[in-house]
Design goal:
Elements (H helix, E strand, L loop, with lengths): L10 E2 L1 E4 L1 E10 L16 H26 L1 H14 L2 H12 L4 H19 L1 H21 L15 E5 L4 H5 L6 E6 L7 H9 L3 E3 L12 E5 L4 E4 L3 H8 L6 E4 L2 E4 L6 E3 L18 E5 L5 H6 L4 E6 L13 H12 L6 E5 L27 H6 L1 H16 L4 E6 L5 H14 L4 E5 L2 H5 L1 H4 L6 E3 L1 H8 L18 H16 L4 E3 L7 H9 L4 E4 L4 H9 L3 H13 L3 H11 L11 E2 L2
Parallel strand pairs: 3-4, 4-5, 5-6, 12-13, 12-19, 13-14, 14-15, 15-16, 16-17, 17-18, 18-19
Antiparallel strand pairs: 1-8, 2-6, 3-7, 3-9, 7-8, 9-10, 10-11, 11-20
Helix pairs in contact: 1-2, 1-3, 1-4, 1-5, 2-5, 3-4, 4-5, 10-12, 17-20, 18-19, 18-20, 20-21
The structure holds phosphoenolpyruvate and magnesium ion (MG).
């Protein structure tokens, strides 16, 4: 948004989850002061140790319960936080500090501090986990000091706009979209995990918005999760124009409207905007869902996904004491497959390594974890894990009425692609593709397509590796912009390489959920789009308003630009209305 278009007093950040939300501000501040270093216990070290242990366990159990309630990726993230609270080395460090005389709260604070320093020094993805660790620490200290952990309220009289410097995953996932009208953070990038979770919840969100936390609590704020506008104190008419005839707290989410109080919310029927994805002249563009496990299937169906374009399978492997048995994997995959009889489900095989290590494997210290052994590099190093997952997938496919396709993350070369496809074939999986997330893969797409049955472009990592910009860094958010012409060039190259060999090439990165960019991606030659379920209606509507020829012209104009802003403006001028949410229709729940 240009300064000229910005209403007076409004702030602008990065819109990362589409829709418009309105409500009073609730600012989350976790700047609790550190427990006094001189605070000692009363001499009964054993009792104090037990108190610390109880608090750690209580927080672990709360996090675990919150994760189970939320499901999907949230369960994974909160589960990892619960593991932090249950770490035996941490417990031993706390016990040692209490033994040396420290009170339980101080001992916990210092015990976590040692890990914090290690993570912060590692930087990258591990560095980002500092916020998660701090969140666990603050929760435990709050319990020990008899305070509430200071997170956002889980219930409120009307939906509120949650503002924070940065949100811990636990803050995001324990909330419901009926309670929160929008998220705004000062930090965080568009592909940070908080942004992905907000999209998965279907709540409008703006990140990298400096100054947001200085908006006074209670101020009514309008948040546009597409343009990134954060507007304190708009008039009733302005709110009504933005969210459709009401000044009560609420949100328009992914093109569907939620409004009214938390208790009496009215939700638009997302089914109205269903049907196969296609341009206005009938060029089919299957619209698929990104999901983090079987619990997300309901949303995928609700928003009319034609299938699953990305099932992230990490949920089965992280935070486990032992590798999941084949039988358990088969059941989880079948649960997803059975939701789409006759449809397709693309499963991404395990994407861990470098920084996300399954607890049952020894960690590896790498100086530059994001550039280390992750994705397929990890998978190849542990053939028993790879073999088990591929076998389980083949068994699930044999029992299902859906078409299963599998794909590998982080593939960089044609040889890696060929080895992966061979392994899949040997396991009895007929359709094996690769993700295009590394620039080398896009540059040599024609070679990779020799063996890979299809491509799926992961624009989140492709941007990270193209611009050498950590995807979790708010300060580098501009480099994580999928409108960057260099990224569009790589998408075009990948799609052309696939097309020359008659292979389909989808996009499953967050870029696919931006309605204007979705049209441009189609113009670049992308054949399917997979996104957070709540983004589906707006993308479906945008495609249905424009011909394929228009998309081609918009793609050409965007690539001719020299900045992301120009690229978007050039595309939008050829795709009028592509950024307008689909018509709203309300249905009582
Ligand atoms: C991507 O990198 O674009 C992607 C879809 O994978 P993830 O976000 O899980 O890394
Ligand atoms: Mg990726």
């Amino acid at each position: 948004m240009s300064d000229r278009d910005r209403p007076a007093g409004a702030l602008v950040g990065r819109g990362v989850s589409p829709g418009v939300g309105f409500g009073p501000v609730h600012v989350v501040s976790r700047e609790a002061s550190a427990p006094d270093p001189g605070a000692c216990h009363d001499g009964d070290a054993e009792a104090e140790r037990a108190r610390a242990a109880r608090a750690l366990e209580r927080v672990a159990a709360d996090l675990e319960r919150g994760g189970e309630r939320a499901g999907g990726e949230a369960e994974e993230i909160l589960g990892a936080q619960a593991l932090m609270a249950r770490d035996p080395e941490l417990a031993a460090a706390v016990a040692g500090l209490v033994g040396a005389g420290a009170g339980a709260a101080r001992a916990v604070y210092e015990g976590f501090g040692r890990y914090r320093a290690l993570l912060a020094a590692a930087g990258g993805y591990l560095g980002e986990r500092v916020a998660d660790l701090d969140d666990v620490r603050d929760r435990v200290v709050a319990v020990l000091e008899g305070r509430s952990p200071g997170g956002p309220p889980f219930r409120a009289a009307e939906p509120y706009v949650l503002i924070a410097r940065d949100l811990a995953p636990a803050d995001t996932v324990a909330l419901s979209r009926e309670t929160v009208a929008a998220f705004v953070t000062e930090e965080g990038g568009p592909t940070s995990h908080t942004a992905i979770l907000a999209r998965a919840m279907g709540v409008p969100a703006v990140v990298a918005c400096p100054g947001a936390t200085s908006i006074a609590p209670g101020t009514p704020v309008l948040v546009d999760g597409s343009s990134g506008l954060v507007w304190p104190g708009p008039s009733g008419d302005e709110v009504a124009a933005a969210i459709g005839g009401t000044a009560a707290g609420g949100a328009v989410i992914g093109g569907t409207a939620v409004r009214g109080t938390a208790a009496g919310a009215e939700r638009a029927d997302p089914g109205m905007a269903t049907g196969p994805g296609a341009t206005s002249d009938g060029h089919a563009v299957p619209l698929l869902a990104n999901i983090g496990g079987p619990r997300d299937v309901r949303d995928a169906l609700r928003y009319g996904a034609e299938g699953v374009g990305l099932l992230r399978t990490e949920f089965l492997f992280l935070d486990r004491a032992a590798a999941p048995a084949e039988e358990e994997q088969v059941a989880a995959y079948l649960e997803v497959l059975e939701a789409f009889p006759g449809g397709r489900v693309v499963v991404r095989t395990l994407d861990v390594g470098a920084d996300k290590f399954p607890a049952f494997l020894p960690g590896e210290k790498e100086p530059n974890p994001a550039l280390g052994r992750r994705g397929i590099r990890f998978f190849e190093k542990y053939p028993e894990i790879m073999g088990g997952q591929l076998r389980a997938l083949a068994r699930a496919a044999a029992r299902s009425r859906a078409t299963l396709q599998v794909m590998a993350p982080m593939v960089a070369t044609a040889e890696e692609a060929a080895r992966y496809v061979t392994a899949c074939r040997e396991a009895g999986l007929p359709s094996a593709g690769v993700m295009i997330e590394v620039p080398s893969a896009a540059l040599r797409a024609f070679d990779l397509a020799l063996t890979a049955d299809f491509f799926s472009i992961g624009t989140n990592d492709l941007a990270q590796y193209t611009f050498a910009a950590d995807r979790g860094s708010g300060a580098l958010a501009a480099l994580q912009d999928a409108w960057q012409p260099a990224l569009l060039d790589l998408v075009a190259l990948a799609a052309a390489g696939a097309a020359e060999r008659g292979r389909p090439c989808g996009v499953c990165g967050e870029a696919a959920g931006d309605p204007v960019l979705a049209c441009v991606l189609v113009g670049l030659g992308v054949t399917s789009l997979s996104m957070a379920p709540a983004s589906l209606p707006a993308v479906r509507a945008a495609l249905s308003r424009h011909t394929r020829e228009r998309c081609l012209l918009a793609a050409r104009a965007a690539r001719a630009a020299i900045s992301p802003g120009e690229a978007r403006a050039a595309a939008l001028s050829l795709l009028p209305g592509a950024d307008t949410p689909p018509p709203r229709r309300h249905a009582a729940r």
